[in-house]
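Appendix B. Chain record.
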Amino acid sequence: MPPPGAPGWQIPAVGWLLDHCPSEYRMYAVWRRHPLALAWVTTHHLDGQLGAMRTAYRGLRVDLADHVEPEGVAAALAALEAEGARLLAARRAAGLLLEAMQGHAFVPRL
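Structure tokens predicted for this chain:
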């Protein structure tokens, strides 16, 4: 993705943001016309997904221990952990895009 401030940088940013929202969001022209609003709603959507992953991770062992063999529980917990890490990275990136769209200037670090 081009850095904020580069010509046309918001076009690929909108595509990336839409990739992290439910597919139905692509039906609404408002998100392409108002990328700042899309970035804002994407951060909230990812926050909700992170909350759901954390709740599932906390409850999986207790709720499914009588119905899923231990290897299955361990595999499901590992999958939830990996998905949580992916969502956390996406949430951080969406937050940075939101800040960039709000005009925040990023200073490179050495």
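Further analysis of this model is presented in Appendix C.
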